[in-house]
Design a protein that fits this description.
Low-confidence stretches: 1-7, 9-15, 323-340
Number of strands: 7
Distance between the termini: 20 Å
Length: 479
Amino acid sequence: MSVMDKQDYPDSEFVPFADEISVSDLLSKLWRRRGLIVVIPLAALLLSFVFILFTAVKTDTPVVYFVQLQGIDKGAYPNGARFSPQDLLDPDVLKEAVSVLGISVNDSLRRAIRVEYGFPTTLGIEKKYQKRLKARNLSATDIDRINAEYKRELSRITEHGLRIVVNYSDIGLTRKQGILLASAIPRAWGRVYTHKYRTLVDTRLGNAAVNVKDINLGETSGVLSCYDLIQRIKKGLGVIDGDIRLKAITSRSGFTAADLQTNLQRFNRLYFRLIFTNSFASPDQITNNFLFETQLHIDEINHEIDGLDRDLAYVRGFVQQPVTRQTTGGASNDMIQLGENGLKQVIGLANKASLSDYIEKILDRRQELVARRATLLSDLKRSNSRLKKALDQNFINNAEAELAFLVKEYTSLLSRVRQAARRNYGDFFKPLGPPEVLTPILPRRSVLILVLSVTLGVFVAVFIALALPDSRKEPDLHS
């Protein structure tokens, strides 16, 4: 303390300056205005809660509709055509779907509708695998394995269901109209694709129907027409018998596809082969043209088989390429590393694995062509036998009666196959519940908004409490 200070206050001790503030003074001031500190954050909390509720009421959430696929196996329709969720956005499908609302199909409508693979249980699956990934001490291999399991399970489940989302507010529709449109889309898809595109029955059965009218086995033209008819029946029965979903279906008289195949072989053995061979005993323009076309067909098959053989040779050469590997010095023999071109080799191995399906398709096609060529060659040998044997009319009549019976039962079976497909698959889907508008109780980040509003209210209240002048009279330090 200086001499001047001692002279100014000769009879008292040193008194601090009046502008010095202590923590105890601040706390006491805040305590005296504790009501203000409580009221302002509560008011901020109330206002933010009202804002959140108002936002939730005004927010238009889309309509979500889950359906389970029926008759769609491995991404294909029953007829073998590829299926895509975008089939539900086909112009013909949308046109029929919106007909109940009286609106037109345009780009805005297409953008407002989204169709994708999905199932209601996908969220639970995601949470399950997220929990597994949170475990401690997971190696990179463990993480890759868990991710692969997640993708396989998700793919297995989602490919059997569709998630239809309609943003009705984007196209000026009400919530009720959005629900109506969401439920109309899969129904329209089922009708359009079963009637217009005929996706219920295998495409190979699309032209399998036959007609026995005006076939006279006593004439060369009738014999060759019967030859084509038998090939179509044989092909159709093979398709039906090869489909596990259709092979148990019977004709009106109780014949399955396998039964009719046996009857067809019997007809060939007892009747048609003899009639066919005998028709070439006296060559004419019709038989000569048949032989010429058959030889051309065999040549085409040979060319196609040669092309498939070249493809197989190329693929085999690619698959059999050796993969160079090297071991690190001083490491055990089990530690194997790729060389400098390791990345290319890994890509090559992946390509080899993906070629397995391609090779299988080539082999199946080649086997089919070889069997077809063998049949045609046998028919040529029969036509060249020049066997002349008189056939009485009773034999011809019995053959025509047997042929008519086969055609009748085959037509009945084909009709029942189509009816069974429509009955079993229906509209390709089954609802997993009504369309719903998934409106949350509170909008997203509502908790964050509430916490920030309370925090801001506390800061504002403290600032106001400290800024307001103290109404209590301060003591005079000079007296």
